[in-house]
Amino acid sequence: MQVFVVSHTHWDREWYMTREKSRHMLVGLMEELFSILEDHDDYTFMLDGQTLAIQDYLEVQPEKKGLLSSLVSAGRISIGPWYVLPDEFLISGESHIRNYLEGQRQCNELGGSMNIGYLPDSFGHPSQLPQILTGLGMNEVVFWRGLGPDITRTELTWAGKDGTEILGVNLPFSYGVAACMPEDPEAFVDRLKLKIGLLEPLTDGKVILLMNGVDHVAPQRSFPSNVRLAQERLPRYELRHASLSDYLHALRAQRLPLQKVEGELRSGFRAYLLGGTISTRMYLKQANYRAEILLEKYAEPLSTLVWTLYGGEYPRAELRHAWRLLLSNLPHDSICGCGVDAIHEEMMQRYRFVDDLGGSIVEEAATAIRGAPGEADASWDGSFAVFNPLLHSRSDVVRASIVSGERLLRKVNFETGVLEEFNPAEQTRVPTGIVVRDGAGNEVEGILHAVNGEDTMHLSLQTQPEMYRGSRVEFSFAVPALPPVGFAVHEFRLTYGAPPAAPVIGRVENEYFLVTFQATNASLRVQDKRTGLMYEGLHVLEDGGDAGDEYTYSWPLHDKKVFLDPTGVSITAEGSEAYQTLVMRGVLKAPAHIAPDRQSRSGELAEIQIESRITLCRGTPRIDVRTVVRNAAEDHRLRVLFPLGGPARFGSAEGIFSVDDRPVTPRDASAFADWVEPPSTNPQKSFVSVFSGERGLAIANRGVPEHEVILDDHGNAVIALTLLRCVGWLSRPDLLARKGNGGWTLPTPGAQCAGEHLFEYSIIPHAGSWKDAGVRELAHQFAVPPLVLSLGAGGRGNEASHSFVRVDRKEIVLSALKNAETGDGCILRLWNCSGETVRASLSFGMPVESMHRTDLAERRHDMVPGRKGVFVLEFPPWKIVTLEVALSGNRREGRVASPDGPGNV
Q1: How many helices (H) and strands (E) does the chain have?
Q2: What is the pLDDT of residue 408?
């Protein structure tokens, strides 16, 4: 039996320590590592599979980069492949890919990457991870959490949702099974024998893996000599102090018959899954959603669109910097919200940095679309472009916020050196409405939400800023068709007549739904006019106690559920015939905190103010909701409930390049009594859906990632969407929902999430399953709204509209449009959101010089032939396809080439 011992550290950049405290310890670890490597020629060490920790170290000790590079090149230190070790469910599919690309950039500068899917501490693993790993060039995954009871061996084959298979190595006793070994030689041998005895029965082969290291622990200087002594004392084993690659090479050489697991790995059978982290510090999850959408759906594709249309420089360096900022917030302890308050305060600052940088990139794209300033049309107050980042044309609601009617307020007079002040005339008329005109001259009436004065600053590299005073105009309107991955220019005019008549109080209606407020339980009744089905009791706000911690929701032994008091709910209506909003305002009186014994909720009450705005728009088969919660309570979980009105066996939720079916949470959990952590809530991306025969119901969301499908007293399915989970401890040992402590018992008052929160979600009644009803398309339209780019009073746009690419099949989804990591091409990443093979046609808004398939790491494969500007591709079920597209009309290059690439017919 060969025993491979891999010395390593697991470096949580920020967790129970702040980043700088952690970095101070990291410097000491690295100095000790260099010293040990100098003294022991046979010593190797693994730096945790991520490069962000190395970046942190080199910022303090940049002079050590050469030494580190030489040790990496020599195979003494293993680094990479990732930039960070993320939570795999809370981040997007693109974040997974960019995490690898950024890690590889840094590894290449430092001597190379071990290129193994090392993910030791993620809180479960998504169903498409095998496809992602192999698409990035990795052939193995080494992990701890997530396996269910069916797998009994440490080696396995893992098949992803698309059928991709990868070699898996489970670390059943975590990545620290042989951590902090005794310095005393005899005690070392005894413990090593114990650890071998734990793992040997779990393999059918002749090699086992012992991980010598754990969180924030330095390498052990005595380890090489103690391993040599152990080899003498344990002659039946061949002990090798080696790298993870050495172990995997020996494992593969055995050609073992392996057990096989399929789909996602989210079982809490043998290890803590820590599933409550999906909703801990919900404000972090929402900020991350906004940041990923900003970079993936707006900044990158807009920059690519502008670059191909108008030339100039693609902001490659700025986008990479923005991605590094975003990725630095995605380590599992960071994005999961399970750290001390200070680290999450710093994370929010990094999200603000991403917002500033991504917003500036979007503004530059708007400037290019605007073109040279022209003469303003006095009959219109301004113009704007609406960008649709989705792959298909859409009719939707557009919500805009534009500064209009700007007048000069102050600027520097460089002749006098004085900051001159002006007194622009104030607007005296109060607008009551708005009219929007598209490029074809069609006019629609919008809904004016608010007009408020605002001072803005115009930046320029040619002079110091100038300040203007204008009006911030917030409005919505319905657009019948937006071009796919493209924009359309519009103009708007404020109107000053009588305000539009408000809809009937207590109900809103369009051609799809009639929504009525039910005073008995402060809920909504929805009639689906297409099917005649009635949905009762939707949108009930339920508040329960949470005696858990940042890792795990745990109910008090004597819980007390409370609901919105229907007698105190006020109902008003806003809008017009085309755009109607029902406004519900009320107070939920909840126990102020957990009782001192943590077995029940306190008798003291806190008032949680809640406002929900339920909106229907003509032409849109969704019921959109914006809920503001002013949280004044502690130790509680606030959810909103959506009963299906029928039984269901499972819920279908969008995941990472997937839609995953998960069983409904059983009312009787006795079957999971021997699990370390029983199943409960689940992650989602843009939607979750349930159906019972012809009756279906989906809830879409914007950055609200936790849901659970539960059963009511009649056995019918209910979607429970978590809005807030508020706790005051990093970890505790006294939870009913978890056996033992999950981390360090430290107070975290910031995790109580006091203050105001905005949640956006959408109710989508549908017939049959999510696939039959087009739920994914509707959910994506809600989750990724059209982006409005202000063009100013004199800007009408260089083009009235433009589309980058069109695809003729709804099953194909856009993941990325950006410039290639190297070279002059564009990367177009698509995925098939269905279990069937799809043959789809792609056509572009500019002539294509050539198209090649690549892997996820953008390594070029075969050429894709085209005919008359149309490229036909086959997408196997759930497959991710990445294309490198060279456009012949790039104005920066001035190239003109065959529109279909060489050799096409």
Answers
A1: 15, 46
A2: 94
User: How many Å apart are CA 563 and CA 730, to the nearest integer?
Assistant: 28
Bridge pairing between strands 682-683 and 706-711:
antiparallel
pLDDT at 889: 58
Question: Please, which residues have CB within 8 angstroms of residue 38's CB and are 6 or more apart in sequence?
Answer: none
Residues in the chain: 905
Q: How many CB atoms lie within 10 A of CB 187?
A: 12
Q: What percent of the chain has pLDDT over 90?
A: 89
3-state DSSP assignment of residue 12? coil
Place of tokens 């953008």: 858
What pTM, to 2 d.p., does this model score? Answer: 0.96
Report the C-alpha dihedral over residues 6, 11, 12, 13, rounded to 10 degrees: -160
Residues of the chain with pLDDT under 70: 372-376, 794-797, 889-905
The DSSP-derived string for 296-331 is: IIIIHHHHHHHHHHH-S---HHHHHHHHHHHHTT-B
> What pLDDT, on the 0 to 100 scale, is given for residue 376?
64
Shortest CA distance to 329 belongs to which of 290, 299, 359, 363?
Answer: 290
Q: What's the rounded Cα separation, in Å, for the pair 802 and 805?
A: 9
- Closest-CA residue to 47 (of 85, 100, 1): 85
Take residue 159 and report the two structure tokens written for it.
Answer: 């098949």
Is residue 380 within 8 A of residue 492, CB to CB? The reply is: yes
d(C-alpha 554, C-alpha 552), whole Å = 6
CA distance 285 to 282: 5
Residues 82 and 75: their CA atoms lie apart, in Å, by: 17
Cα 824 from Cα 473, distance rounded (Å): 39
Identify whether the C-beta of residue 111 lies closer than 8 Å to the C-beta of residue 73.
yes
**Could you identify the residue written with the tokens 């404020």?**
494
**Structural contact between residues 843 and 891, judged by C-beta atoms closer than 8 angstroms:** no
**In terms of Cα–Cα distance, which of 859, 860, 828, 862 is closest to 844?**
828
Q: How far is it between the farthest Cα atoms of the chain?
A: 95
Q: Per DSSP, what are the bridge partners of residue 7?
A: 212
Judged on CB neighbours under 10 Å (0-12, 13-18, 19+), 440 is: exposed
Distance CA 417, CA 423 (A): 19
Q: What's the pLDDT at 641?
A: 98
What token pair was written down for 41?
A: 């020629």
What long-range pairs does 712-717 form, CB within 8 A, spacing at least 24?
712/643, 715/647, 716/643, 716/644, 716/645, 716/646, 716/647, 716/648, 716/692, 717/643, 717/644, 717/646, 717/647, 717/648, 717/651, 717/664, 717/690, 717/692
- Residue 417 phi/psi, 5° resolution? 75, 20
- Residue 252's H or E segment, with its range, is helix 244-254
CB 313 within 8 A of CB 783: no
Residue 129 neighbours by CB under 8 Å, 6+ apart: 88, 117, 141, 158, 160, 656
Q: Which residues contact 134 (CB under 8 A, 6 or more apart)?
A: 164, 166
* Beta-strand pair 636-643/540-545: antiparallel
Q: The tokens of 889 are what?
A: 């009309």
Token representation of residue 261:
């697991």
Q: Are 226 and 188 a contacting pair, CB within 8 Å? A: yes
Predicted local distance difference test score (pLDDT) of residue 895 = 32
Between CA 132 and CA 140, with CA 135 as vertex, the angle to 5 degrees is 75
DSSP state of 338: -
Distance CA 642, CA 626 (A): 15
885 Cβ neighbours under 8 A, 6+ residues apart: 825, 826, 827, 828, 844, 848, 850, 851
**Tokens in use for 485?**
């991955």
**Nearest 5°: phi and psi at 361?**
-65, -40
- Cα–Cα distances (Å) from 724 to 474, 673, 789, in that order, read 28, 27, 32
